[in-house]
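Could you show me some protein's one-letter sequence and the numbers that encode its backbone in two labelled lines?

___
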Amino acid sequence: MRETNKVFHLAIPCKELDETVEFYEKLGCKLARRYADRVTFDFFGDQVVCHLSPNHVDENPKMYPRHFGITFLAKEEYDKALQMAIKEDLPFFKEPMVRFAGRQEEHLTFFLLDPANNLLEFKYYHDASMAY
């Protein structure tokens, strides 16, 4: 498990800064910094940097092998993120579903699509030991 004095960092492409800021703020992320070529967010306690690179946007994204997101340890937080996505009319790539039903690794999940076609997964495991 990660120590609390560390922050995970992820850099991803974006095609336009204003729409990127709008999407991530609607998701509840805080804009930390903005420059002419990138924006940095507090993404649920970690750092996501969206670099302006419209020529590197995946026009046909697939869930596997590339996506990122949050595994919530509290169901209430998962539910809150889902309700926020619905309320803000954020684009779903995959609607909420249950994966691995009836197995120890059963979890709730949904995927969102950001303006640059980056896929974000949000999930909650009923058995917290399966989070890693």
